Queue: 3 jobs
Job 1
Amino acid sequence: MASSMIEPLGASGAIQKQIRLPFSKAVQIAWRNIRVRLARSLLVMSGIVLALAFLAYILCSDALVRSLITAGGPLVESLQKEGKLARMTSTDVSAQTWWLVGLALLVSFVGILNAMLMSVTERFSEIGTMKCLGALDSLIVELFLLETLFQGFVGTAIGIAIGLALVFLESLFTYGAEAWTLLPGATLAKLLGLCVLVGIGLTIAGALYPAWRAAKMQPVDAMRTEI
């Protein structure tokens, strides 16, 4: 898969040769940029981790409670007597919780967008050099999206792991370890898949505008900008 072209121009201004950069090379460049700017990468990942941890916690907690209600038994009767079941299934509490989830995702999106815009600003000279050497707009976009995808995958995985750990600890002390046996594996897999899709979609959405801005940067303006 080709990811960019370098286009030397002849005296007439026509393209004399096109050199395609392998996709594997673009991946290497993106990975190197992440390691060089580790602090910025950690900032992007932190927002993803917090948002996905909260989302995974809410989804799995809700699924676990529904599984308990469906299964019935002494545990559900005990929770009903203590009033805990009514609080957990309250419509108002559920609405407030989902508002908080939406707010967390929005904050994460803004954080990713801001961090990526700062990354573009810090790399004016680098982007200008690449474009002067013949890098197409598609390569610039691809590099920024690859960097964000790496961060999104790692942040999503960590966030989901934290969310699951919180749900497990809470259910262990509230319902007992046997409660997890009532949650179908297929349901849990669907919820985790949804979390992954949300995490990756969130990172791509937050990186699209910064990547587009970097790609549309004029080489001359970028080269003469001092940061």
Job 2
Amino acid sequence: MGNLMRQYWVPTMLSSELPAPDCDPVRVLLLGEQLIAFRDSNGKVGLLANNCPHRGASLFFGRNEEAGIRCVYHGWKFDVSGTCVDMPNEPAESDFRTKVRAVGYPCQERGGIVWSYLGPRSSPPPLPDLEPNMLPDDQVVLTAIQRDCNWLQGLEGDIDTSHLGFLHLGAIDPENTKPGTFQHYTVKDRAPRYSVVDTEYGAMYGAYRPADAGRLYWRIAQFLFPFYAMIPTGVLGLQVLARAWVPMDDEHMLFFSMGSRPSVATITAVNAPATRNRAGEDLLPNRTDWNGRFRLAANAGNDYKIDRGRQRRREDYTGIPGIHTQDQAITESMGPILDRSTERLGTSDVMVIRVRRRLMEAARALAERDLTPPGVDRPDVYRVRSGGAILPESADWLEATAELRQAFVEHPQLDPAIAG
């Protein structure tokens, strides 16, 4: 699966983590590699292997200066591509510098995200056309949160729609919701039916349940290779949101949320004490170690600040404050890597099953036939949206929502209040 991931550009960090030229380097754990990110004097981002190719000292302690990072052990200096540009402990007449490179990966910045390509191509493929990552910077809201479990556990939470009516809305009674809204229909019928289809970019589901007379409420969501999800929290046609579940290693991930301002609330700040993210959860100050970035203040060490009193009084289904924290508690509670052979999957898990199958088929096709995975060379297939819609019972959901699922299309006639 790691080779599959390396065919794609990977969201690596927030641009704000490298706030200025020649700022402090940052340790980055990505796809099992220990890497050092830095922004050079010209504002370009470099991502190099942690160990200097000379004697293995960590470049984290390097001097970020004059368009390169200089190892403090012997002064060897590397630019953002990994080229050795200075070797001051070798004789001036030596050409040894031209024979040495640090392992370095191409980086691009777009939409407040630093993207990296860790794959085999000398010329990387294009970045995916993810709509929220292509908006003007002042219209984009970003969140990053680390999670201590395998990336697939996080992703599968996003494509499991039935848990919404329990984990997040389990304490809400239908009579306490506004009739005619998505929330009302969700808590009135907590067992949706499903339709799942393969797509050029991955897979899509439509989960449906009764709305008012003769109509159905559909929640339509996307899986996009290799680790993206578009969840159906808003109105289809209005919601502009994508979420990435990026493997740091087998047992840790970084979750990135990219959305337009109408789709999400306030932007996450970086490195501030008790920073509050867009969903209202508090973040601890970032540390400089490999696993020290974007950690929730509510975590396994304090049982995610569960309030058993609120849970017993049925004021909250879980007693855990915050939707993201509820998700994090559950997926981390499965352990670092869940043994899937112990699961008993039902009809509500049809999208989880389909996505696992798609991932395994693509990984095998790459390994056995060198077949390029879906979406690598087709950035346009990522131009899709997710969300909810009310449709007549007789409607073909794919035909009826085709235009609403297209990115970069305005629908001013739609009312966001229907989400409830």
Job 3
Amino acid sequence: MHDENLSRAVTAFVWPVFSSSNKNATRFVAAARWSWAQARLVIAYGTYGFGYIIPATFLPVMARDVVSDPAVFGWAWPVFGTAAALSTLGVALLSGRKGNPGGNRAAWIYSHFVMALGVAAPVVWPGVGGIVLAALCVGGTFVVITMVGLQEARTVVASEGNANPAPLMAAMTAAFAAGQIAGPLSVNLLLGAGGGFAGALLIAGAVLVAGAVLLLTRTTS
């Protein structure tokens, strides 16, 4: 009986917290009614997650398959990281410039195409050269897309008269995570079917191009 009374007391104490959380969740879901312009951002950000994760995960493995010397194939990640650092500085400088309407979306689109080029590079240019080009293109664009994609979310939401971009940003982040999960699973399926990395890379490149095309037409309907 004592335990039962204690349970009731605890339930009565925490119930207002859960009730408030449910109300907040309801308001969040109600706010997450996207326009087609917003939905395109979510889908495109998901294609970015899919296209990025495959080379980001398997680039060292591909380099090791091409070059047996660890001192050589180990350069794949330093090149990747250096390109990412330089691109971050570039975005920071460009973002400080005014009078550049549509610049975030344009940078996002171009970065998708550049990343797609890098993803496909080891297939069309087998060897160390393709690996280095992949590291440069993917490493040099993934930070750019992350930054300008979220900035574009703010722009689209504001253009529709909404002051709260958080639900859209959350959906984009979830789509990116879903793409990151789907990417390695796709590679695993292809490898299990007797294929190699080439097919997975070409699929990732095609998905990135599709995401760029999806962003080309800008509407707020």
